[in-house]
Design a protein that fits this description.
With 252 residues, the chain is an alpha/beta fold. It is 42% helix and 15% strand. It has a six-stranded parallel sheet with strand order 2-3-4-5-6-7. A two-stranded parallel sheet has the order 1-8.
């Protein structure tokens, strides 16, 4: 490992330790075990060579918003044991690629996408872990099902045997008012409890993917089992246009 890579690995490892310590502290406040929370590093805009440093720091499961960016990085890191989670909105014309290389898809919110994924996964002879995305903030700028539509949507999912349904995902409102953020997470947790009681047999709704770099501690306090953290691990992104605004997609 050259000095530049070693320095980058050390920097990522230091930030990763800080994030994990914050997760552990939030778990302690909530009376939870830190092992109950999975950290999904979001690598949006992070180049592949830095991900090699991240692997050396102990990470191997990365999240991406865009299929093409994930695919390019998967190819660049094909010599390493990396798994990929897609956390952004998926168009049906990108389903073919996701079915080939992704291990997880966290933004399922339409039967059309579910049907397209099922067909492609059948061809690839693969299964895919999926989470159902819910729009808990009610903002028109966000994707996801309306909370009132989740139960009906869930009843349709047993028809898709290649989709391994694991839970729910949301993006909280981007607000400095903690209570407004917390309400989004509480709503998702409440929906999860209803699905646990009344959801279709054979499906698991254990996972709650919620919380990003700016709010993951609140999410953990409200029951998150997956937090999607990018900037707190990899540093600030190079741009801050609308595409990278935290409320616009599943990036952390």
């Amino acid at each position: 490992m050259d000095n530049a890579t070693a320095d980058e690995t050390a920097a990522i490892a230091e930030r990763l330790y800080a994030v994990r310590s914050r997760i552990a502290a939030a778990c302690l406040r909530a009376g939870r075990a830190p092992d109950d929370v999975r950290l999904l590093p979001i690598t949006k805009t992070v180049p592949a060579h830095r991900l090699r440093a991240a692997l050396a720091a102990g990470l191997s499961f990365f999240g991406e918003n865009k299929v093409q960016e994930a695919k390019a990085k998967a190819e660049a890191l094909a010599d390493l044991p990396v798994r990929w989670s897609l956390v952004g909105h998926l168009q049906t014309n990108k389903v073919k690629e996701v079915a080939r290389f992704a291990a997880e898809f966290q933004a399922l919110d339409s039967l059309r996408v579910a049907e397209a994924l099922e067909r492609r996964l059948e061809i690839e002879d693969r299964t895919l872990d999926v989470l159902v995305q819910v729009n808990t903030s009610g903002e028109a700028s966000k994707f996801g099902l309306a909370p009132g539509d989740v139960a009906g949507f869930a009843r349709e999912l047993p028809a898709f045997s290649r989709l391994r349904v694991g839970g729910l995902m949301t993006l909280a409102i981007f607000s400095a008012e903690e209570e407004r953020v917390r309400r989004c997470f509480r709503l998702l947790a409440a929906l999860r409890e209803r699905l646990r009681q009344d959801g279709p047999a054979g499906l698991s709704f254990e996972a709650l993917s919620m919380g990003m770099s700016g709010d993951f501690e609140i999410a953990v306090e409200e029951g998150a089992t997956v937090v999607r953290v990018g900037q707190a691990i990899f540093g600030a992104r190079p741009t801050r246009d609308a595409d990278y605004w935290p409320g616009a997609a599943g990036a952390g």
